[in-house]
Structures are given as structure tokens and as C-alpha cells.
């Protein structure tokens, strides 16, 4: 099943709760929340207080993407705030196994994020421990960037590797995704589609989510035995 995860980084920050409510009513599967520290990436965004406030506003899982240095110091904060899924960057952690283990010990889904130019083989020793993999299809730090086409074969290669290893681990893809390129990503192996500007910069965000859900359902039906 292909899932849709609207990214609230692109929402109007004065109306984030309303944006989350709109996304849930439109059929979104997750709420994606980008956390940036101004060090690992140049931008500075949201904190655990916002995650805690959204926890009471939606029944959808909160998918927290840590774009931060030393993720281990952030993981407990976002666990306490109510994050359901927590991912951090392979490039930012000196002790990936420790950080993945911490997330799982806290009872949350653990994901590892990779920048567009980071090869997937660097996950070899940790892949089987993950609950999901987040592949960036733009360089992290800013909303509204264009999708990097070179990420398509990377998605396909990871999907083939997971099948070879008989691992049921969803591939989440984030960056520059719109309804008009979403189907191509799904064909290459994307299981969770993160979209920000395509949804929240549109005049009718709910309609865009509905369109993306329709594409996802059509693909799911094609895969039915």
C-alpha cells in the first residue's frame, strides 16, 4: 500500500493545526515533520513543543525527520513529544546502531535518512534493523526544491536489495514530489510519498492530497494478485 505523508514544513506556520486537520480529512496517512537545527542543514525549523501540540490535534502518526547533528540528543525529546516515527541522517550520526536501537527501545519506528549523493550500500550493517528508509530526492534544508532525477535508480536499487534480503521495509521518498512525477517514483519502488509544496502551496491542498491518493490506489490495484 502506497501512503501519502504531507510535510507541514510547507504549510502556513500560523495555521499548522488547520493544515494538519485538512490533511487528515483529505485521507493522508502520516504527517511528516521536518526538524532542522541550523547546523546539519542551514535552515532552522520546528521543535518538540510543536510536535507535542500536534499530537492532540490528529490521530495520524507523526513522522519526525531529524535533520540535525548529534541526533541521539534529540531522539528522547521527540519521543517525549509524541513522535511515532523518527528518522535521522546516516551522514549525521557517528553511532548509527546506537541511535537506531535507542529509537526502538523507546517504542518508536526507527528510520535512516540518506542524502541524494549518499550510496545505499552504507546501510548494509544496519538495514535489517530499520523500520523504514527515507531517501531524500533533494538536498535537505529547504522546501520547494526540484526533484533530482538521479534518485530514481537509487530507489529502484534499494527496492531490489530489500526484496533480495526478504525485508519488508518501506521506502519513504522526500523532495520535489508532485502528482505528475509521483507515479514514476512508485514504479521505481517508493512506498511512502512525502510532499510539501505540492500540497500546501496549492490553492486547494485537500484536492492535491485526493489526487495523490487516487494515484496510490490505482497503483495498489495494479499490484493486487
What would you note in describing this structure?
- This protein has 225 residues and is α/β, with parallel strands linked by helices.
- 36% of the residues lie in helices and 18% in strands.
- An eight-stranded parallel sheet has the order 1-8-7-6-5-4-3-2.
- Helix 5 runs parallel beside helix 6 and helix 6 (179-188) packs parallel to helix 8.
- The radius of gyration is 16 Å and the shape is globular.
- The model has no long low-confidence stretch (mean pLDDT 95).
Keywords:
36% helix, 8 strands, eight-stranded parallel β-sheet, 225 residues
Structural class by sheet pairing and helices: alpha/beta
Low-confidence stretches: none
Assign the CATH topology: TIM Barrel
- Helical fraction equals 25-40%
* Order of helix and strand elements from N to C terminus: EHEHEHEHEEHEHEHH
CATH class: Alpha Beta
Distance from first to last alpha carbon: 13 Å
pLDDT averaged residue by residue: 95
Oligomeric status: single chain
Neighbour order of strands in the largest sheet: 1-8-7-6-5-4-3-2
Number of strands: 8
Instruction: Tell me, briefly, the overall form.
Output: globular
Name of the CATH architecture:
Alpha-Beta Barrel
How many independent structural domains? 1
- What integer value in Å does the Rg equal? 16 Å
Task: State the fourth-level CATH superfamily.
Answer: Aldolase class I
Strand percentage, roughly? 15-25%
Number of helices: 8
Largest sheet: 8 strands, parallel
